[in-house]
């Protein structure tokens, strides 16, 4: 065997190995959960409580409910988080929303925040449906006063839920056009469009959502390029609000006035 053939064979073997690893461990790159929160909800929210959500595939998920701390508007915000952390990381957002007169449910998906199960696209969709059922069927929330606030990957979960269940409005914070588009940006050397198991389309589906949509994005977002979020807004025919200079995890974008005002405005519909 010539040297050139041996080199080619070695490179081919390496490529196959890399693709196999990418296929096998891709969800560990997509989903980055943290464990159970250190505090109880009553310790971080006035009147806060833990609730149990029951999914259609038999999981019991813990979430946190926080009531409005200002004169209540009658609207409720279901926070559908991004791919990292747990519900404790969304406490500043919930506090800002409750101070605007909104009730809040902080969801942790399966595998997040001490919840059982393993996150997948279909699993997260089931978790969101369980949260919707809890709010509308058990707490009596009028779906017309239910605002879905989806962060990044959670924007895809929110979009799908709004296609499957009645809601009042969507606030999509840092939404991407699809998970494949984001993955291709960050892993240009891998055939991610062929490899991805979970797709999370937003641009191709958000135009069919019957509820009003507002898109909020950071002008310096290094994870989801602002152009992707603008494309989602265009597909939805939705207002686009950009926070100048804000990166993906900056507080101004995570729980600043642009997001809170969008949720409050959406809740008045």
Describe the structure.
The protein is built from ten helices and ten strands. It is of the alpha/beta class and about 270 residues long. It has an eight-stranded mixed sheet, sandwiched between helices. A two-stranded parallel ribbon has the order 1-5. The chain starts with a helix and ends with a helix.
Question: Which terms would index this structure?
Answer:
269 residues, alpha/beta, 8-stranded mixed β-sheet, globular
> Roughly how many Å is the radius of gyration?
20 Å
Strand and helix order: HEHEEEEHEHEHEHHEHEHH
Low-confidence stretches: 7-23
SS class = alpha/beta
Query: Largest sheet at a glance?
Result: 8 strands, mixed
Summarize the helices and strands and which ones pair or pack.
Blueprint: H1 3-30, E1 32-33, H2 41-44, E2 49-54, E3 60-66, E4 76-80, E5 84-85, H3 91-99, E6 103-106, H4 121-138, E7 146-151, H5 153-164, E8 169-173, H6 179-186, H7 192-195, E9 213-218, H8 226-236, E10 240-243, H9 251-254, H10 257-267
Parallel strand pairs: 1-5, 4-6, 4-7, 7-8, 8-9, 9-10
Antiparallel strand pairs: 2-3, 3-6
């Amino acid at each position: 065997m010539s040297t050139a053939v041996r080199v080619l064979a070695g490179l081919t073997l390496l490529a196959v190995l890399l693709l196999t690893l990418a296929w096998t461990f891709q969800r560990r790159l997509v989903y980055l959960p943290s464990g159970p929160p250190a505090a109880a909800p009553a310790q971080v929210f006035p009147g806060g409580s833990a609730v149990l959500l029951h999914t259609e595939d038999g999981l019991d998920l813990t979430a946190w409910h926080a009531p409005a701390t200002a004169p209540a508007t009658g609207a409720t915000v279901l926070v559908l988080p991004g791919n990292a952390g747990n519900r404790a990381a969304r406490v500043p957002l919930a506090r800002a929303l409750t101070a605007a007169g909104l009730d809040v449910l902080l969801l942790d998906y399966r595998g997040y925040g001490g919840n059982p199960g393993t996150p997948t696209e279909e699993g997260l969709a089931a978790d969101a449906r369980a949260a919707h059922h809890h709010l509308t069927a058990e707490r009596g929330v009028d779906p017309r006063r239910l605002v879905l606030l989806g962060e990044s990957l959670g924007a895809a979960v929110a979009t799908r839920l709004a296609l499957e269940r009645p809601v009042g409005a969507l606030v999509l914070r840092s939404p991407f056009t699809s998970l494949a588009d984001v993955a291709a940006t960050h892993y240009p050397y891998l055939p991610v469009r062929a490899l991805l198991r979970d797709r999370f389309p937003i641009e191709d589906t958000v135009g069919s959502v019957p509820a009003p949509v507002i898109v909020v994005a950071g002008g310096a977002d290094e994870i989801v390029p602002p152009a992707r979020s603008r494309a989602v807004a265009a597909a939805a025919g939705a207002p686009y609000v950009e926070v100048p200079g804000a990166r993906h995890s900056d507080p101004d974008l995570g729980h600043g006035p642009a997001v809170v005002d969008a949720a409050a405005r959406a809740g008045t519909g």
